Amino acid sequence: MEIVAEKNDSEEVKDLQPSKIQSRVFEAIEVQAQCGGLPLALKVIGRSLHGEPQQVWERAKNKISRGESISAYHKNGLLKLLEISIDSLDDVAKECFLDLALFPEDRKICADALLDIWVYVRKLQRHDALSILSDLASRNLLNLTSTPRRTIAISHENVSELYFSQHSVMRELAIHLGCRGSVVHSKRFLMDMKEQSLPEKWEFLNHTACDVQVLSIHTGPMEASNWYEMNLPETVALLLFFTSSEYSLPPFLRSMKNLKFLMILNYGTKKATVKGLDALSSLTELKCVRLERLIAPLVQKQRTELSNLEKLSLSLCEGFEYVSTFNITKLREFNIDHSSNLEEVPISFCYMPSVKMWSISNCHLVQKLPYELGNMNSLRMLRLSALPGLKELPPSIGKLRPLECLDISFCEGLRELPVEIGQLKKLSEFDMRECSRLKRLPRAVCELNSLKLVISDEKIVK
Questions:
Q1: Is pTM beyond 0.90 here?
Q2: Ramachandran region of residue 144, left (φ > 0), alpha (ψ -120 to 50) or beta?
């Protein structure tokens, strides 16, 4: 076990000469004065200067001194001050910060959705995207929270249970920095706030092709006739946020031939029936689809070609039980979460030959898994979390020979594990927290020679 001793603040102070300490204190006082004592400005700027050499402090202090003295009523001055906190980011991290403006302010959004944009739009590797998420959070440029059952630890395994939000001023900063330059050549089109219809200034998109990479729309109910026709040949990501019981997807969706990322999120108190999902068949480049709080009964009746889709995430959705209506032979990641009406996992969920990560969580009515689960012979991570009705795992789980990570946390009804679990020779991580009825383990677990991390309760450990 590796033990790392972190250097504390007192040790850092000891390393500074008295003259440097005095200089740093005076600089801190000047920065505080220029910030007008505003907590947000002090918090963000202070975090961006933490641990930086004196010349960085000098540069920031000089830039602040050229700015406008601010108060709670001087928003422009605050934005100028906060802009300093972005200076220390590299170009890639700056683009990632600007992407925060695509999401509504003061709303908790699954951090995994943000990472998907960075992976499929910014073309980052997953581990690099996770590092940037951690860095932005440490700089107070976004806020990270987790579900009550989890701790805030950023990793590929738990990122689906992390949520980010942003202060309204930080979102305005991202909008302010991202909207510089020509509108026609803007990388991002977004709505500053929720509106009942599309902004009139967007009507020019009907006859003008733009270089928009990402389009974010936040409205109330929308019928097909409410949409403008938009010419968006270069757009690779579309985010649709709405509050309504019915919603029609934009007709121009069919023409977005380069679209790789699609997110449809309903903020209403009830699930919304969404129309026009058949348009997805036209999107041959689509890689990632995220749907939340939607009802799509028509999916059961028609086959939808999504031959290049790599990731499908369904949260609080109904009508997607018959996923075999999708042609998803290249799917690498499948997530279904908080499906209140899912009682039995369809066999079709198990016919995903390329899937690497398969997750079903917070589905309280699920009592068993199909034997066909063992058919997914490319699976690396299996997550069966918060399924309190699940009584057992199918013996076919032993056929998942490449499996490296197994999560059965919060499966309170699980009484025993199958002997076949000992066949998972590559299993390195096993999360079995809060499995309160799991009284004993099969002796076959002793054969898991690759196991490096087991997360469990004290009772099971004993």
A1: no
A2: beta
